[in-house]
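--- STAGE predict ---
source: upstream dedup step, 1 unique chain passed
mode: sequence only
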Amino acid sequence: MEFFDIILIGMIAAFVLLRLRSELGNKTGNEPMPPAAPPHGMDNRRQGPAASQADTRQDAATVVAFEANPAVRQGLSEIQRADSRFNPAQFLEGAQGAYRMILEAFWQGDLETLKDFLSDDVYAQFAGAVDAREAAEQTLDNRLLDIEKAEITTAELNGRDAELTVTFNSEIIAVTRDKDGNAVEGNLSDTITVTDVWTFARSVKSRDPNWILVATRSG
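--- STAGE serialize ---
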C-alpha cells in the first residue's frame, strides 16, 4: 500500500469517528444544526444559513404524520411537544450511527467508548460479556455489512423521560477466534440476518442532548 493511501485511510477513519460521535452526542435529533456544518444523519435538504428551526419542525411533523403506528405517532407527538428541538428523522439517523458504533466497540472490547453511550445496567452487561470473552482468550471477528431497516417501534413520554425503541434489521458476519487466531465459531463467508431491539432514553428537560441506550434484546 502506498504511503499516500495509508494517510488517506487514516483521515477517512478519523472523519467517520467524529461524525458518528456527533450523532449520539450533541446533535441526535434534539439541537438545531450549525447551519454551515450539519453532521452525518441530518436532513441533506437543509444547507447553508437558510436552514431554520421552522424547517426542522416541518420535517419532524411530516415524519410523525406518516408514521403508520398510531401509538408511535402519538408518542412522537408528545415528545415533540415537550421538546421542540426533537426531530424523529434525525434521531433515527443518529440511532443507526450509534448502532454501528456500539456494536463495533463491543466486538473490539472497547469499553471506554461504550461508557459514553450506555446506561449503567447495559454497560455492566456488555462489560461482563467482554470480560468473559477475554477470560476464554477469544476475540470476535465480526462485521456489520448492512442495516437493512431501522424503525421506531415504540415512543413514550413518561413524565420528563422520553423513551424510543428502535428495531434494527441487519446483516452481519460473526466469527469467534481463539488466542491463535483460529476460527472456533462462524465463518467469514456466512452472512447472518439479525434483528435487534434497542431502547434509547433521555430527559426532555435536560440540557444534555445525549440519548442513552437503556435496554437491548433480540427480535
